[in-house]
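Structure (tokenized):
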């Protein structure tokens, strides 16, 4: 008993390490978003208005947007990824790969993820059918981007330069005020809704894993079958080419 008391700090450090391990993705995401917020704060305030951590209702539930910058030059929708290692992927891929010293992890293509965000903004601003909405995916400088994409995929440090390249006047001062008000009013900022948003995402991930374990395509519900290509055998959707899902 005395030994346990004497080494209480060891157990405390051990518990803290476990907690940090469990919440590491959340912490990294939070740090990434705060870093981008800091960079964006250096944009001229008389030209750019910044909204952070916005949750909007959609036909499929809710969608969380890291940052929205509204200006006379357009609306910039920013998805942040605070990752390390090599980042590999193509614009058309459903998943990209993070490679850290040979350890590979798959994550959903952030260009597709941000596309859903821009569509939510378009639906919200239906009275502005010609609104210029510009999606940007920003990665931490701790990673090395090896992606093949025409879309704007940049490092954190290049976010402001990417934004300020746009110089064509799109919105009037009054329209900017109206757009900011529409988005702000639509933001679901209560804790319960945010909790439901996170729970739904976790549930969807679990459901997809369950479907895959039973050889069911998580994208369209068709059968997953073994297929062959010049690169070898892989498991893909039997509904190809209507569904291009590949198990990676």
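Design, position by position:
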């Amino acid at each position: 008993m005395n030994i346990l008391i004497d080494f209480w700090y060891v157990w405390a450090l051990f518990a803290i390490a476990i907690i940090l391990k469990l919440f590491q993705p959340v912490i990294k995401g939070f740090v990434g978003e705060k870093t981008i917020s800091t960079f964006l704060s250096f944009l001229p305030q008389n030209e750019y208005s910044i909204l952070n951590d916005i949750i909007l209702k959609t036909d499929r539930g809710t969608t969380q947007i890291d940052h929205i910058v509204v200006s006379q030059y357009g609306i910039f929708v920013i998805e942040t990824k605070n990752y390390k290692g090599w980042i590999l992927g193509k614009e058309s891929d459903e998943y990209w790969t993070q490679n850290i010293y040979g350890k590979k992890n798959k994550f959903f293509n952030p260009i597709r993820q941000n596309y859903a965000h821009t569509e939510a903004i378009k639906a919200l601003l239906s009275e502005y059918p010609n609104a210029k909405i510009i999606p940007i995916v920003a990665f931490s400088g701790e990673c090395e981007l090896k992606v093949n994409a025409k879309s704007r995929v940049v490092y954190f440090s290049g976010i402001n330069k990417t934004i300020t390249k746009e110089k064509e006047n799109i919105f009037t001062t009054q329209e900017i005020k109206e757009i900011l008000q529409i988005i702000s009013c639509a933001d679901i900022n209560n804790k319960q809704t945010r909790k439901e948003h996170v729970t739904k995402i976790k549930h969807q991930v679990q459901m997809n894993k369950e479907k895959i374990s039973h050889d069911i395509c998580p994208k369209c519900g068709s059968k997953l079958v073994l297929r062959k290509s010049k690169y070898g055998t892989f498991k893909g959707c039997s509904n190809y080419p209507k569904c291009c899902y590949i198990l990676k």
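Reviewer-requested clarification: The chain has a mean pLDDT of 85. DSSP finds seven helices and twelve strands in the chain.
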